[in-house]
Amino acid sequence: MFLILRKKVLAPTVTQFDVKAPFIARKRKAGNFVMIRVEEGGERIPLTIADSNPAEGSITLIVQAIGGTTKLLTSKGAGDSLLDVVGPLGNPTPIENHGVVACVGGGVGTAELFPIAQALKAAGNVVHTIIGARTRELVILEQEMATCSDSVTVTTDDGSYARKGFVTDALKALLDLPGSGVHAVYAIGPLPMMKAVSNLTRTYGIATLVSLNTIMVDGTGMCGGCRLTVGGQMKFACVDGPEFDGHAVDFDELMKRNRTYVDMEKITDERHVCRLTAVRQEEIR
Amino acid sequence: MSAVNPLKPSQRMKIPRQESIEQPAAERSINFLEVSFGFDEDRAVLESQRCLECKEPYCTDGCPVGIDIRGFVTLVLQKDYVGAVQKIREANYLPAICGRVCPQESQCESLCVMGKKLTPVAIGKLERFVADYEMKHQLFTPPVVTERREEKIAVVGSGPSGLTCAAELAKMGYRVTVFEALHAVGGVLRYGIPEFRLPKEILDLETERIKALGVEVYTNFVIGRTATIDELFDEWGFKAIFLGTGAGTPTFMGMPGENLSGVYSANEFLTRVNLMGAYRFPENDTPIKIGKAVGVIGGGNTAMDAVRTARRLGAERAYLIYRRSREEMPAREEEIHHAEQEGIEFLLLTNPLRILADENNWVQGLECQRMTLGEPDESGRRRPVPIPGSEFTVELQTVIEAIGQKPNPIIQATTPGLATGKRGTVVTDAQQATSRPGIFAGGDLSRGGATVILAMRDGKVAARAIAGYLQGLNSPPP
Ligand SMILES: Cc1cc2nc3c(=O)[nH]c(=O)nc-3n(C[C@H](O)[C@H](O)[C@H](O)COP(=O)(O)OP(=O)(O)OC[C@H]3O[C@@H](n4cnc5c(N)ncnc54)[C@H](O)[C@@H]3O)c2cc1C
Ligand SMILES: Cc1cc2nc3c(=O)[nH]c(=O)nc-3n(C[C@H](O)[C@H](O)[C@H](O)COP(=O)(O)OP(=O)(O)OC[C@H]3O[C@@H](n4cnc5c(N)ncnc54)[C@H](O)[C@@H]3O)c2cc1C
Ligand code: SF4
Ligand code: SF4
Ligand code: FES
Considering the entire predicted model, what is its pTM? Predict the structure, then answer.
């Protein structure tokens, strides 16, 4: 059992948890993830380790409630426990001093990007961060990102906060800025966003690393459920990635594959929502 | 030991080989309950009477762990079932499991003299009977550990090789810790072999017994990630390590269409169903999705388990697609037979070429080609060769590939100096020692895909070698 030490709501559907997991806290590097199971009978889902505190023996997870398991998770609070947490999994992000880099985060992807931006800054890079969200209240980690970035640009799809538009608009503006000298781009967010960023940077010939959200079961290379095509070759996201060269990834194939269980996920989601509302009603009574 | 069977050999030979009591095929192909109930007492005793109590029991030569088969069968005859299972356990710590899943027909039973002219003694089923008897009547007595030793030993992986190695070392008094990457122990016994062949209750019970010997178990712990092998030595203070991490990484055919929705490796399919309990969706959260028609590619135990599982999940048509003929299938004879009874359609001498998609990117069909058998290849089996112009399409919505697995590379990649062989196996000597002092390995990791009993054999050999190694470390240099 893995104790939840603290819980903090970052945005309406985005929650941060600090979880006791001393072995993982000691070993994790930027880019690693964990597989978790909330309770018996539950799914195993991957979550990026956003931060860690080795002295306390804790790791930080930031999760967006989008379906059954993530909603169940966000219903938990400090003092509750997660049944299983295993990691650190995946390859750490290759961190180099490129000179100038752009870090582009979309939605909860910003949480996954945060440790990478920190590491890139520590390696001596000039870091320009771009955060995108659908609307104002979904913007997360703006202040935290500012601590490790030379500039932070926020975009909202609906223009309710900061710059209206998509992250690719802001990225294009940055790349077009004379003398901006961006040498590498790190992009994490929804697949369509990473695809758009990769298409953009391809025309500029700028190396782009993306972190792929595939379906996963074990997270250790044992099932092949996380497979995708990179440069015409089959790769397993959990052991060969989760980060890949954005210019070589077959995004269209992956987006279709990720829809495999949509109808069944709806059932799980509804079941958990029913159960959670039942619990809440219980509490009210 | 004097013979106790009152029957003359000629009379024994007249007794037909006893058959297990089984769930009828129509019933069982829609549930996940165990297919076979095994022998009842009468059948067990009758079967034991068939044994000729040979002076030179060849049967034992066929058992990788050298069980005294004649000895235990005679105890069954005397109705001393607990004595029989205790005799088995001297050589094999998991009789209820091996009695169910050992490919007996190619091991012990293949050498039984009764099989020369008639049918061999049903050794596996007798083994299962006595183990079940002991379980049912709760007559198990744990071994007494007489000595305590200080050295700590790590066992990586909790499949049959790791569990056996841990149990053997614990019985010698060593302090053993098992590290398992998944959230539950058992390896393939847990995530691969389905409930209808090996009830998880049995595995849970065996695991508890091993823990009762003082073995500590860490689940959710990936060696090479959560801690490396070198950290286990240097920081955790382990003096020796056994690697039993199996061969769990699936391989794919490399044909077009493999990344469509509706294509699984057998490992993913079986893991979802067995480990994650997807057969009870939505009670359990993990989904599994199959179409009306399912095709499983392969001819081994894995393929057989996958296709019979698909049947139980409701596939109206479940095909087994294999490029050689029935004789060449590596699966256990009993499983092939059960699959046939359950209405699995065998497409033999058939080689898949590519997977076809519908407009939603789901599998719609499998294009195949007919094969014929040519000259024997290096494995001694006749090589399948395509028949030109024989292409045809099977209509189906789910494809499951069960064409083989290789070792997971995480430990090999993070352990300097650990020699590996072809297909990523870890190289060992006859004592299961690897190229690095203090590290031993066995099971599918060193064999690249074998059987439960061979994995157990390796775990046992390694346990003795580890004890020898540690005693060597402790004895002053000459
Ligand atoms: C390496 C890796 C790291 C990740 N890190 C984080 C993280 O730090 N924080 C976080 O909130 N999420 C992260 N994810 C995504 C997270 O695992 C999924 O959101 C989660 O599995 C969804 O489970 P669910 O049962 O709540 O939703 P589901 O009901 O399973 O899915 C709801 C919707 O999301 C889609 N979906 C399903 N699986 C994924 C997926 N893996 N990625 C994106 N969309 C998906 C479905 O198609 C469906 O439309 C990560 C994924 C990967 C592979
Ligand atoms: C579907 C299927 C059906 C089969 N049916 C039969 C049968 O009927 N009869 C038979 O004799 N054989 C059968 N086999 C083969 C048999 O199961 C294997 O030969 C046997 O399980 C190998 O045992 P093992 O101990 O080497 O490894 P495994 O059983 O593979 O166990 C390895 C364990 O190590 C863990 N692990 C891996 N990497 C790490 C790591 N880095 N850190 C920590 N833990 C790790 C894994 O999670 C796993 O639990 C079958 C195999 C399959 C897949
Ligand atoms: S362990 Fe397997 S090979 Fe040995 S006697 Fe039992 S069934 Fe036969
Ligand atoms: S070879 Fe067959 S008949 Fe002879 S002792 Fe073994 S089991 Fe009995
Ligand atoms: S999640 Fe199973 S192999 Fe990657």
Answer: 0.93
